[in-house]
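writing this on my phone so excuse typos. first protein, seq and then structure
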Amino acid sequence: MREFPVKFNPGNLSQFQQFKYERDICYLREAIYEHYLNEKTEVKGEYYPYETPFDLQKFILARNPPRIDEMVKTICTELEKFGWIATIGHANSAMWVYPKSGRVPKSLPEW
């Protein structure tokens, strides 16, 4: 951050929780995006960047975001608009993101 945002002032104290929510959801989007860009899983010679789930628990421990369930629901809806399926598993600690038209990740447990 090069400088403090203009909204960081005492007149906005009552909005700080909302500012944190907005910032945390941006970090969550970025973390999911980076995870799948860097994933290098190959299955039978084919590249599947979505085989390994995103570690939601690690994100929660690092950022302690308020209203994480609301954030995840928003993120899942956003991803679906782009043609992805987002599935939460392992007691809400992992997120699989994979194409609607692709195969289901083998690492995704069957419930």
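second protein below, same order as before
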Amino acid sequence: MSRPEDFYVAWEYLSTHPAFFLYEGDDWGFDGHLDILVMRDDETGDVRIELEHGPWAPPTPDTPGISHGSPSHDLRLDSGAPTFEEAVMQMAEKVRRYYPDTTLPVGAYFDY
């Protein structure tokens, strides 16, 4: 089991990461469109927590600039684990992998 401090650090990282803000002053943020799914395997009884971020707004020829990251649903960030805390920490690792530069200004991940 992970330490509570690890979960807190992951939550703060996600809550302040610029990839989750569309433009300056946007209050969407990480938890603004966080979907939490609780699933149970009927055969094993195992419970799994699935996390998705962003509305289902797949990229189209008219919106090529939101093909990855918020405000679209970036499938690369979907995470799942036996506990909510572990799923959040997994998502934080994926954000670190796909959106590593937190020195960029808010909105820099999008092609307007």
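Strands lie at 34-40, 47-53, 79-81. thats all i got for now
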